[in-house]
What we know:
The complex is a heterodimer. Chain A is mainly beta. Chain A has one helix at 140-154, and strands at residues 39-41, 46-52, 57-59, 62-76, 81-93, 96-98, 101-109, 114-116, 119-120, 124-126, 131-137, 175-177. Chain A has one domain (27-154). The N and C termini of chain A lie close together (8 Å). Chain B contains 6 helices and 11 strands. Residues 1-10 of chain B have low confidence and may be disordered. At the A-B interface, strand 10, strand 11 and helix 1 of A face helix 2 and strand 3 of B. Strand 11 of chain A pairs antiparallel with strand 3 of chain B.
Amino acid sequence: MFEIGKKGTPETSSRPESSPARTESSAPRSSGGMSREAAVIGPSIHIDGDVRGEEDLLIDGEVSGTVQLKNNSLTVGPNGKVRADVYAHSIYVDGHLEGDLYGSERVNIRKSATVRGNITSPRVSLEDGAKFKGSIEMDPQAAQNVVSRAVAKSAPAPVAAKPIAPQPVKSEAPAVKTGLVS
Amino acid sequence: MAVDARRASGGPHAAPGAIALEPLNAPLFHTLMQRLAAGGRWVVLDLGAAHSATIGSFSRFRCRLDIVDLATGLDALNGEVDARRIRQHAESLLPQRRSESTDIVLCWDLINYMNQPALAAFMECVALRCKRGALAHGLVYYSAREMPERPSTFVPVDDQHIAQHDVVPRARPAPRYTPEDLARCMPRYGVERGRLLRNGMQEFLFRL
């Protein structure tokens, strides 16, 4: 069973004893200034597929696919390994990330991070020491347009209006919605 | 765009003992920044490593910054002998070609760290991503017979000055490419202007 959706503060959950305590600045921030706990994908969790949710998320495990947190923040922790295109309100990276990052508010690449991909966001910060290879869109207008298009494109298809016949369940990569699985 | 520029002692490839040198007056870099300040949207290809100061500098302009971090691929590039494979490897180090071509190329000191076949192949691949009239800025070890063993990290201090960080103490012979060498290896790049800097490096502004 996935541990995704398990609640816990980033300071105490899913972190080995030897790791340094997480600082306030490295915790996920929720949108709108609300203070709330983040969902955590712990170091032993591997997910292949799409991760969608409406709460902040800390990834300290491995995720391949896409991550969509349209109105919330994603933090890739120091142990996190993400191979995915990421759509989020704010994105903070301490670990490894390979994919394109679309942050409608900001993207922050911290000094311990290794990122390969393209960043599109109205606010981008990169701390010295971080390894980055890719493009940074610094034109606010272009960034806004690209993020809007990317978020719209990545949104799930609308539900069909007419009844549809039951379909056999396919064993494809799971679409995981944060907060639903406990 | 808002960018936090936090300065740390070492860049992503800083070696033990690496030091930072005093900022240099770089008049041709200033020319480049003046061109950017004229307005419009720009695509900048930075062959160096990502650095907060570079991102901070270019965030003032409407631009896309493509960061290559070429230093990480230099050994493999220089190690190839077959021309076709050199070209393939050079392509793999660069961002994919897009509909929007490059206006500005920041070569920093990386020209010095490619042998002539690698330099020719790599800069040809860069040229294919550039608009006609694009500008390329580069620094060539010219007076000194030796240069740091590994590429340094050059970062803008302001529109007129650049600083050399992560200078490794061990040295190796500098190729001391002459304008004729560069013209042979980079036939698409005409030397717009050249200036000898205080530290003995030749600063070049090329036009494609």
